Amino acid sequence: MDKVRQIRLAKDAMDRDWADPELDLDAVAAHAGYSRYHFIRVFRETYGETPGQYLTHRRIERAEEMLRGADLSVTEICHLVGFSSLGTFSARFKARTGLAPSEYRTEHVGRGAALIPGCYAMLWAGGFPTARGTAGGTARTATSKKRPGPAAAYGDEEEPPDDRRAEP
């Protein structure tokens, strides 16, 4: 497999699981088939930034969207985008945007559609994880818990088929 394809697979894994706070460099490097240190060098050569910088930028972009559109606290958004520390989130957010998260919200809210109620945003994002992994021992990422399949609405239950051939 060529180098660019291997790095792209790892980048796709980061794009898919960006919200998982336990996403680590070793797991991402394994997607590319590299050691962690070689992966950092090759990723930087390919994309111009380290995997950590790329992941932080993705998370900050998602936080910007949530601050503009969801009625959630900064702490809730911090955890939903994969940061485990509010201080780290605020520092990285300010370094990237020039504004603290609360200042960003104040400046950008009211320019478009109304805020999405926090309960809907939390439902869409899967809420806060309560335990890492499942009873079967397989870990689930934050993104695998999003958007469960649509349930049947009241009155939409499936009727049993009228199959007369099955009768004796």
Give descriptors for this structure.
mainly alpha, 168 residues, single chain, 52% helix, two-stranded parallel ribbon
**Count of strand segments:** 2
User: Main sheet, how many strands, which sense, barrel?
Assistant: 2 strands, parallel
Number of helices: 8
Taken from the alpha-carbon principal axes, the silhouette is elongated
Rounded to the nearest angstrom, the radius of gyration is 21 Å
Helix content: 40-55%
> Roughly what is the average pLDDT, rounded to an integer?
75
Q: What is the element string, with H for helices and E for strands?
A: HHHHEHHHEH
**What ranges have pLDDT less than 50 throughout 5 or more consecutive residues?**
131-139, 141-163
What order do the strands of the largest sheet run in, or round the barrel if closed? 1-2
Beta-strand level of the residues, as a percent range?
under 5%
Distance between the termini: 60 Å
What structural class should be given to the helix and strand makeup? mainly alpha
Topology of helices and strands:
Blueprint: H1 3-16, H2 25-32, H3 36-47, H4 51-69, E1 70-71, H5 74-80, H6 86-97, H7 101-108, E2 116-117, H8 118-125
Parallel strand pairs: 1-2
Helix pairs in contact: 1-2, 4-6, 4-7
Descriptive notes:
There is one protein chain. The chain is mainly α. Helix content is 52%, strand content 2%. The protein is built from eight helices and two strands; from the N terminus they run ααααβαααβα. Strands 1-2 form a two-stranded parallel ribbon. The N and C termini lie far apart (60 Å).
